[in-house]
Amino acid sequence: MDRAAALGQPNPDRADIERIERMLRHCMVLARGAEVSFFELTDATEMLRKAKRELARIQSDASVDHVYNFFVTAYHVIDYVKEGGSVSREELQALRTDWMIQYCADVCNKAKHMRLTRRDDVTPVRFSGTVGGAPIGMLPLNATDERWVMWQDGTYVEMVSFARATVVRLEQFFIANKIPL
After folding, report:
1. Which of 18, 34, 45, 131 sits at a 20 to 30 Å CA gap from 56?
2. Where are the domains of the chain?
3. 120-164 pLDDT tens trace
4. pTM to 2 decimals?
């Protein structure tokens, strides 16, 4: 018995196939003027490119949605590297334990799970709005709307700069391991 019959579904005819193809075309995502299907994120190179698109978004708007998308994507590039099978276990482990990738993992996991259980928790900090109750622009300070993360050891990182540095670190790893950029 074939799968369709087992599920109580008829085998698709040409009209069904055309309807499914139309639905799949509607599932395409517009990414910077080029159509990229969800299922085209099939390797580490494509995931790194997605991370770079997310970086461009947070550089123009550091909203929580873009920050979340960047760090979840950037950290999961490693999963795609592992699946690619071209990097040794030792090289992959060295990347996973790199301090910058560990910090990226912290932000990713904090965003996804709302707390960290394997490492010290991190705290998001946002500097914006007012200074001592005075609206920005009323005091002679060059205040900006920035998102920061603070670790319990006192380390602070600004999100956009950290995101840029994370991409650079991933690119260095790709180059060193001859993975196409």
Report:
1. 131
2. 26-114+160-176
3. 545 554 444 445 554 544 444 444 567 777 766 777 778 889 899
4. 0.66
